[in-house]
Amino acid sequence: MEEAEVQLQYSPASLASSAASPDQMDQAVVVLDSCGDLPSSMDPVLLSAALGGATGRGSLVWHNPFPLPTTVRLSLSGPGATSQECLVPGEGSVTITLGFTPKRLHSISAQLTVSACDPRLGKPGTPAEGSPGGAGVPMLLSWRYPIQAIAEVDAAKTSGAAFRFSLVGS
Q1: SS3 letters across the chain
Q2: The predicted structure's pLDDT at residue 131
Q3: What domains sit in the chain, N to C, each tagged with a CATH number?
């Protein structure tokens, strides 16, 4: 977890006077906003497998950026679409294994989406506990991994067949 020193500038919401004792000063609630880059499309995951052979496998690792355990939703779009949830420890990681078993010679694309929200803020769409006026509604963050799978021909199983090509035209 990164730490940073920041300078705060206090701007009262009104000019009305109020008395506060020194022991009440440490009970002030400070709400901070920050900005950063949202997760987006990640590097593609490439899979290949021999046609009529074993399943081609690949994996990727998703790191939980939050200090608390969070439930993430894994959603695969495209052929064989599926989804499931898993709990990832705070600042921990989960390895996601992908498989591809081609039935014909072709390439295919899919997308794996890993969705989570900051567990300190509750569930998406509900105000965070203790947040003033419903502020702090957590946003669902999504990391998208493009997947490209390619079927290959196992040369050892082609029974001596040769591939040929010719050029047509000038």
Answers
A1: CCCCCCCCCCCCCCCCCCCCCHHHHCCCCCCCCCCCCCCCECCCEEEEEECCCCCEEEEEEEECCCCCCEEEEEEEECCCCEEEEEEECCCCEEEEEEEECCCCCCEEEEEEEEEECCHHHCCCCCCCCCCHHHCCCCCCEEEEEEEEEEEECCHHHCCCCCCCCCCCCC
A2: 42
A3: 36-155 (2.60.40.10)
